[in-house]
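FORM 7B: Structural annotation worksheet

SECTION A. Query
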Amino acid sequence: MKAERAGRASARPPAWSRAWTWPSTRAARLLAAPMLLAATLAASAGASAVTPPAPLAIVEDLQPVRLAGEGSYRYFGLLIYDARLWVGSQGYRDSEPGAAPFVLELRYERSLQGGRIAQASAEQMEKLGLGSAEQRQAWLETMRGIFPDVREHDRIAGRYVPGQGVRFYLNGAPLAGRREAGMDPAMDDRFAQAFFAIWLSPRTTAPSLRKALLRDAAPKP
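SECTION B. Predicted structure
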């Protein structure tokens, strides 16, 4: 698919972007600052020359599936990951974010530590005012047990299904879900919506990337 460039915007990095390893100790300290320093976000409708298809096992709930949008996240000019949002005929609506299935996929260009991904996610949920302190702590522990360390070109996808919550995949293979991690199944949907709000909420700290992801997300007949 052809790339469509968007302008740069200053934003705080979303959760999956923040555990990659800088080559210097000083840079690592900067990266570890609370919810991070202001970053350069380059959002585009296509960061790659060709968009690889989503694994069929992940988008099976979306048939007919389509790419709603894609963008790149850059930190101080360095590409961290490409993000893609896949939707079905029901699309994605801000007014009802939990009404239809979708898949958010990130393809990394830097190494990331799973534990810091989890911590960053919980911090973003708190900044968005999602869940109680007790819920966020439970969600944090769950994410620590799910998210692996990620290397360059690894892809993590989160598949949302209304009423069932989220399932995560690494390079197309399923990771442990909340039920496998021993958490209360009744919390699945609340956790999922809080997690995806990090990128898709109107109050996200990465508005340019959100705009790129939702470029063609409206429902279609």
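SECTION C. Observations
The longest helix spans residues 114-127. The two ends are 22 Å apart (CA to CA).

SECTION D. Sign-off
Analyst initials: ____
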